[in-house]
Amino acid sequence: MRLVSRHILRAEVLAVCGLLLVGAISGCTTTQDTAARKQTQSKRILERRDHRQKHRQAERAKGKKG
Predict the structure, then answer these.
(1) Strand runs labelled E in 1-66
(2) How far is CA 22 from the centre of its chain?
(3) Which pTM does this prediction carry?
(4) Which residues, including other chains, have CB under 8 Å from residue 32's CB and lie 6 or more apart?
């Protein structure tokens, strides 16, 4: 009886550890996806800002010439 209890307990512990491992892996994937989205968003923001600044500089240059 005691041997069966140990086997059942060991199986339960392994199952719980497996579930925790799967949860951790999926959590990392979610974090990586979020980081990738934020990086893409930051890149777009910087590109738009750069475009606006170049446009303003060109407008100022036209104003000084004219």
Answers:
(1) none
(2) 18
(3) 0.53
(4) none
